Amino acid sequence: GLSSTYFMYIVELEAVLAATDTADLYMRTSTDNGSSYDSGASDYYWMRMGNSGANDVADAQFILTSSQGSGSDELVNGAVNIINPSATAYTRIIANIAYWDDGANNEHTQFGGQRLSAADVDAVRFIMSSGNIASGTFRLWGLTAS
Question: What is the pTM of this model?
Answer without folding.
Answer: 0.93
